[in-house]
Amino acid sequence: MNFTPLLAQIRANQQASQSLLRQARVLLCLGDRALLCLFAMQAMESATVLGAVTCAQEAMVVVEQQRPSLVLLSDQLEQGNGIALVEWLKTHHPETRVLLLVAQVQRQHAIQRAMDACCDGIVLQSRFGSGAMLAALHAVSGGGIYIDKTLRDGFRQGDGHAGPLEPLTERERQVLQEVAYGDSNQEIGQTLYLSSDTVKTHLGHVLRKLPARDRTQAALRGVRWGLIEWPDELAPG
Predict the structure, then answer these.
(1) Which pTM does this prediction carry?
(2) Are residues 56 and 113 in the same domain?
(3) Which string of b and e fits 155-182 if b means at least 16 CB within 10 Å?
(4) Least confident of 14-23, 58-67, 163-172
(5) From CA 82, how far away is CA 228, in angstroms rounded?
(6) What whole-number distance in Å separates Cα of residue 20 and Cα of residue 182?
(7) Do 84 and 197 fall within a single domain?
(8) Given 6, 84, 154, 165, which is the most exposed site by the fewest CB atoms within 10 A?
(9) In this predicted structure, what is the pLDDT of residue 235?
(10) What average pLDDT score do residues 121-137 get?
(11) Residues 42, 47, 50, 56: is their CA dihedral positive or negative?
């Protein structure tokens, strides 16, 4: 593919990505050393990069010692299993946002494991330049979710729950949709003309009805069960 016509847009999206990461404490854990160096150089322009590692065990040490807010990792590492690392992160540090880069779409079983573990974002490496990475960072950094559109068919399968314990009201669906986009309670309130306290109340009802332990799991189940739409993709980058 000839990316030359997209270079200006890619540069603009790189700047937008840096803006999204400005307050982030990032751990990079990638099996590809060239990709690791590229992400490290870009992230260091705006975010606090706590570590850049290639092995799962090294990542676990940094997480325990430094408590990153965002972990960007790949499914294939030099040592260890990237999917198992996602599961460990979401079990032991569920507040940590996790964005997974997947090398091959054919690894459906592994990808499904990451989805079931409530991974916040999953992007195919081959889709860099399509807008997927910026869209994922936008959603994940704001507390929303992002699953690459080429992986979504399998995501509709069940997760062990039949559906909501109670139907969501229209307003609750609207709040949940904005959560999936990665908007804060204040931003949701501005969009829906509600106070932050009212948004918090609606979100509490959503968590109880789905049931979900947090915003991420609520958004994942909302998308899985067809209660809300997928977040729109952004421009190339």
Answers:
(1) 0.82
(2) yes
(3) beeeeeeeebeeebeeebbbbbbbbbbb
(4) 14-23
(5) 29
(6) 11
(7) no
(8) 165
(9) 37
(10) 82
(11) negative
Answer yes or no: is 191 within a domain. Answer: yes
**147 and 190 inside one domain:** no
Boundaries of domain holding 210: 170-224
- Coil, helix or strand at residue 54: coil
Q: Residue 104 is part of a domain; what is its CATH number? A: 3.40.50.2300
Q: Is the pLDDT of residue 233 over 70?
A: no
DSSP string, 61-98: HHHHHH--SEEEEESB-SBSBHHHHHHHHHHH-TTSEE
Overall average pLDDT of the 58-87 stretch = 96
Strand, coil or helix: 213: coil
Indicate if the pLDDT at residue 101 is higher than 80: yes
Q: Whole-angstrom Cα distance, residue 102 to residue 74?
A: 6
pLDDT digits (tens, 9 = 90+) for 24-43: 999 999 999 999 998 899 88
